[in-house]
Amino acid sequence: MFLGVLMSNASISIKNVLLFINNTFIRGGLYIEDGKIKKIAKDIKLPNADSVIDGNGNLLIPGGIDVHVHFRDPGFTYKEDFYTGSCAAAAGGITTVLDMPNNKPMINTAQLLNEKKSIGEQKSIVDFSLHAGLPEKLEELIRINQTGVPSVKVYSYLLQDSISMLSRVFSFVKEHNLNFIFAIHAESRQLLVKNKRFIDDVGLKKDLTYHALHHSPDAEVKEIEAILELVKTHIVPVHFCHVSTKEGSELILSAKREGYPVSFEYTPHHLLLSHEKGYSMGPIAKVNPPLRGQQHVMKLQGSISDVDIIASDHAPHTYEEKIKGIKDITKAPSGIVGVETLLPLLLTLAHNGFLSYEEAIKKITINPARIFSLPKGAIYEGADADLALIDRRKEWVIRGRELHGMTLFTPFEGLKVRGKVLMTLVRGRIVYQNGEILEKPGWGKFIESTSPIMVS
Ligand code: DOR
Ligand code: ZN
Ligand code: ZN
Questions:
Q1: Whole-angstrom distance, CA of residue 228 vs CA of residue 232
Q2: 232 CB contacts (<8 Å, ≥6 apart)?
Q3: How much distance in Å is there from the Cα of 431 to the middle of ligand 1?
Q4: pLDDT (tens digit per residue) in 7-50
Q5: pLDDT tens digits, residue range 291-319?
C-alpha cells in the first residue's frame, strides 16, 4: 500500500487523509519538503512530489508528544536505551519525547544534560527534550536554564522536607528570573513513612495491596495541596505528573481556574487499570503512584476532559527485576512501559466515548507543546513534518512480545484496542511503517524550548 524508505531529502505528498488542523478534521493532503510541511491543500492542488502516499482516508495527526518517559540512558541501558525507547515511541505514533532525569548519574547539571543530549542525538530516532533533575546547589539552575530544557523534575517524596525545599527553589527561580516549569511527582514523604509504619505494625502480607496502602491516595492529595499553596505564594509554573486521584485533580483545577500557572497529566494505566484488575499481575502491575481502586478509576475517567496532558510514564524494568517481587512486592521496582501504547489507548478511550477524538489528540499534541514550550504538536505550513497516520477503526490486541522497546511484557497484555498507527514521520522521514522501524539511530534531534508557538 505504501512506499518504502524514502531518500533523506525527498519530497513527499500524503493524499486522501483526514488532517487534524486547528482542532478539527479536514479532508485533504499535504506536501513535505526538507522535513517541513510546505503546503496543505485539497489533494488536487498539491505540488508533484518524489513520492506520493495514499492515506486511504485515514487520520493524519501531528506526531504525539509524550512528556513523561524514562529511556534509562545513561546508566540503565540494560532496561532501555535511547534507540530502543525511541523505536517504541515511533511505533506508537510518538515523534517527540521528554525524558526523565533519574538516570545513573541523576542528570542534574548543565554538563550532564549536554552529555545526555549527545547520547540522544546519537541513538534516538524521534525528537526529544529533557527534564533536568533538581541540582544539589541551586546556582546550577542558572546554567541549566541555558541548556534549552523546559523543565525541572522534582520527586517530592525523595526530599526530606519537600515543602520548605521547594519554597527555597521557587524563590531562587523567581529571584534569578529563570524560565522553568517544575514537573512534580507529588507524594508526601511524611505520609508514606507513616503508612509504612502502620502496615508493618499490622504485619500485612507484602503484596500489591501493601504497596497500594503504602502509597495511599491521601499521600498524593495532601502533597498536591501543599505544593499548590507554594504556587500561590511564588507564582511559579508547576506541572503535576501522573495524577491518580480525582481529589488531586480537582485541587489543581480550582487553582487553574483562579488563574495560577498549573497543569497536570493522567496516564493510561491509571485511567484503564485498577488495583483489582492489576492485583493478580503482582509486581508487573507495581507502579508509582499505584493503580487505584475501581472507584478511583471511574472518577478519573469521568474527569478526563479536564486533564491537560495524557502521558505514558514509560518506565521499563527487566522481567528478572520485576519477578523478584513475587513473594515480597517491596523487592520489585515500580514502573510500567507505555510509550508505544499511549496513543492507541487514548484512541480507544475516545472510541468508548470518554472524550472526543479532537480532545484526545490535543492532549498529546498541542497541549504538551504549549505547556513545555516546544515548537511541535501542530500541522501548519512551515511546521516540522512530524506526523502519525492512523487507522481509527482498526481493532487489535496488545501483545507484549510485539512491542518495539526492550520490555516485552505489559499489564495491558491481551487488551483489545481500537486505533492503529500505520506510519510515523519525524521531520519528513518515515521512521515507522506497518510494524517496521525504518530509521537508523541518530535521526532524532534535541529540541530547544522556545516561547510557546502560536496556532490559531
Ligand atoms: O513507577 C514509577 N517508576 N514511578 C516513578 O516515579 C519512577 C519510575 C521509574 O523510574 O521506574
Ligand atoms: Zn513519578
Ligand atoms: Zn516517571
A1: 6
A2: 255, 260
A3: 28
A4: 557 899 999 999 999 999 999 999 999 999 999 998 888 999 99
A5: 999 999 999 999 999 999 999 999 999 99
The answer to whether the beta carbons of residues 291 and 245 sit under 8 Å apart is no
Q: Which among 428, 362, 434 has a CA at the least distance from the CA of 391?
A: 434
Question: How far apart are the C-alpha atoms of 277 and 300, rounded to whole Å?
Answer: 16
> In Å, how far are 111, 151, 336, 348, 432 from 340, measured between CA atoms?
30, 23, 11, 14, 12
Strand, helix or coil for residue 222: helix
- How many CA atoms lie less than 13 Å away from 398 in the CB half-sphere? 25
Distance CA 46, CA 281 (A): 51
**pTM of the entire predicted model:** 0.97
- Residue 160 CB coordination number (10 Å): 8
Q: Is the dihedral of CA 377, 383, 384, 389 positive or negative?
A: positive
For the Cβ of 418 lying below 6 angstroms from any atom of ligand 1, the answer is no
CA of 71 to the centre of ligand 3 (A): 10
The number of the ligand 1 atom at minimal distance from the alpha carbon of 336 is 1
Give whole-number Cα distances, 37 to 15, 148, 379, 384, in Å.
13, 24, 8, 6
Are 37 and 30 within 8 A, CB to CB? yes
Which pLDDT value is given to residue 436?
A: 98
Q: 198: Cβ–Cβ under 8 A, 6 or more apart, which residues?
A: none
| Secondary structure percentages of the chain, helix, strand, coil, to 5 | 35, 25, 40
Query: How many CB atoms lie under 10 A from the CB of residue 257?
Result: 8
Please state the atom number of ligand 1 nearest to the C-alpha of residue 241. 6
The Cβ of residue 34 has, within 10 Å, a number of other Cβ atoms equal to 11
DSSP 195: H
The Å distance, Cα 314 to ligand 1 centre, comes to 8
Q: Bridge-partner residues for 70, per DSSP?
A: none
Q: Is the peptide bond before 62 cis (omega within 30 degrees of 0)?
A: no
- Asked if residue 374 has its Cβ within 6 Å of ligand 1, the reply is no
What is the C-alpha separation between 285 and 212, in angstroms, rounded?
11
Look at residues 121, 10, 129, 34 and name the one whose alpha carbon lies nearest to residue 441.
Answer: 121
d(CA 82, CA 88): 10
Residues with CB in 5 Å of ion ligand 2: 185
Place of cell 501493601: 210
